[in-house]
Specification:
globular; five-stranded antiparallel β-sheet; 4 helices; alpha+beta; 50s Ribosomal Protein L5, Chain: A
């Protein structure tokens, strides 16, 4: 069993049950999946850019990404229905826990000028969204080989009752949130 998953089951869940006065351990928030999304943007017709983005996501996640296609045409952006507009990867299970552990312990400390992640990116259901401007912080990416720098967005889907429970789960998993300033 993955060390972070083991810590979650043995330490974090009992702490969350006690902290939020839950009646059952099954009510504790759970990390369900992580979805990593990369939009192609202005390089829609550049096949090399698409191949580079797919290669990057494959190296980072260990999974083959899925192409996302436009559902309808948008003339102002020169997008036609069915065009590839991005790629995404969904991770669950062991890969999810391996990825979260690597993200918290290795990748985030490597981000340039890092001062913590925002605590305001939770939606109403408690899911957290984290964006990267550059993909080069991941240890699988050799900075000498990088020709195309692109950003990515990660959505951490958490099964919980409210965003505060989700935030506490992520804090206990080691996510380095910025300290909130008192006014």
């Amino acid at each position: 069993m993955n060390s972070l998953n083991k810590i979650y089951k043995e330490q974090i869940v009992p702490e969350l049950v006690k902290e939020f006065e839950l009646k059952n351990v099954n009510e504790a928030p759970k990390l369900v999946k992580v979805v990593i999304n990369v939009g192609i943007g202005q390089k829609l017709k550049d096949k090399e850019h698409l191949a580079a983005v797919k290669n990057t996501l494959t190296r980072i996640t260990g999974q083959q990404p899925v192409e996302t296609k436009a559902r309808k045409s948008i003339s102002n952006f020169k997008i036609r229905e069915g065009m590839v507009v991005g790629v995404k990867v969904t991770m669950r299970g062991k890969r999810l826990w391996d990825f979260v552990e690597k993200l918290v312990k290795v990748t985030l400390p490597r981000v340039r000028d890092f001062r913590g992640i925002s605590g305001n990116a939770f939606d109403s259901k408690g899911n957290y969204t984290l964006g990267f401007n550059e993909h080069v912080s991941f240890p699988e990416i050799d900075q000498d080989e990088v020709e195309i720098v692109h950003g990515m967005e990660m959505v951490f889907v958490v099964d919980s009752k409210d965003p505060e429970m989700s935030k506490q789960l992520l804090v206990k998993l080691g996510f380095p949130f910025k300290k909130e300033e008192k006014k």
